[in-house]
Amino acid sequence: MxxxxxxxxxxxxxxxxxxxxxxxxxxxxxxxxxxxxxRPKNLASQISSLTHDGLLSFxxxxxxxxxxxxIYTTLVLLLFSNIFKTPFSWIQIVSFFIxxxxxxxxxxxxxxxxxxxxxxxxxxxxxxxxxxxxYSFGLSSSVSFFMVGFMIMGLLFCYLCFGIDTIIGYGLGLxxxxxxxx
Length: 182
Known about the structure:
Blueprint: H1 9-34, H2 43-83, H3 90-116, H4 118-127, H5 129-162, H6 167-181
């Protein structure tokens, strides 16, 4: 057992890196286990392709809104820092961009995976309700683990490359992107 006096930032960083790798690896294993079933070609696959197309058109509009908001926020902050003669923290803005970009990428990956798995969920739920729930829970947990692991990886990147002060900008980028995605 490690006492609290011997825990340093290096040991915490190693623990977080290992746990992030474990989360990403477990999401991949869960997705592989639940994705082994063959995908049927029927009405459910047609519905899932239409859902996929609609979701992608919605996400294109949302992504452009998020990127415009990030750029406009950066310009407004730059303008106010020049007006009030205060230093402009480019590192915070870079971490803000990284946070927003990571949220966009993780949502894009989950949007590509989700509709393609609808026929498999429908097929497994035809056997029994418990089987369908088990399958959909496994798929949603693997996608959730991927998203959380990817976001923690971005947080570690900002922390290790730019320092602890960039965590605020990273969090604001995630929150801003999440606001537009709800």
